[in-house]
Design a protein that fits this description.
Strand order of the largest sheet: 2-3-1-4-5
Structural class: alpha/beta
Shape: globular
Strand content: 5-15%
Number of domains: 1
Helix content: 55-70%
Radius of gyration: 15 Å
CATH class: Alpha Beta
CATH topology: Rossmann fold
Distance between the termini: 7 Å
Order of helices and strands: EHEHHHEHEHHEH
């Protein structure tokens, strides 16, 4: 079973993927810009600004992700472009109200709401622009998704359970 989860910043991708990986005992394959920025001693925004100027950063990270996915018969992955690269049995888009996403990011990263709003807006916009420029992928086009879930009114465990049940149906 291959499950690809995508969504904008703060929608719950990582949290839900971690729950699914644990429940199904499958790897969670997720190489993120956040991880790369941290490894380089940079803020996420700084790293994304650098990546916006040089597509090699995206290409390298995406190649690494795809190579790891090819090693496994079953996995969950929760990166922005996973549904375009994972050849998954189930592609899932997670979404919710922008104010809730901002509040989640503020709490998660210990930021003020104003700081979180700027980061969320900047990250979402930079990703939209980069992925369109590099891959001609419009991340707002949901036509490749089997399932779209509003995570604003459900606990992550409930969202994970829905995704697991849907994956059983489509496989």
């Amino acid at each position: 079973m291959k499950i690809a989860i995508s969504g904008l910043t703060g929608a719950g991708k990582t949290t839900v993927a971690n729950i699914i990986a644990k429940k199904l005992k499958i790897p969670n394959i997720a190489f993120s810009m956040k991880d790369e920025a941290k490894a380089r001693g940079m803020s996420l925004i700084e790293f994304q600004e650098m990546a916006a100027k040089d597509k090699r950063f995206d290409l390298e990270l995406d190649r690494k992700q795809v190579a790891e996915m090819r090693k496994h018969k079953s996995f969950v992955t929760s990166t922005w472009l996973a549904p375009w690269f994972a050849n998954a049995d189930l592609n899932v888009w997670l979404y919710l109200d922008d104010k809730v996403r901002v509040a989640r990011v503020a709490k998660r990263d210990n930021l003020s709401l104003r700081e979180a709003q700027k980061i969320v807006h900047t990250k979402d916009q930079q990703n939209r622009e980069r992925y369109l420029k590099i891959y001609r992928i419009n991340i707002d086009d949901l036509s490749r998704f089997h399932l779209c879930i509003n995570t604003g009114h459900m606990k992550p465990q409930t969202v994970a359970k829905l995704i697991i049940e849907a994956a059983k149906i489509v496989r």
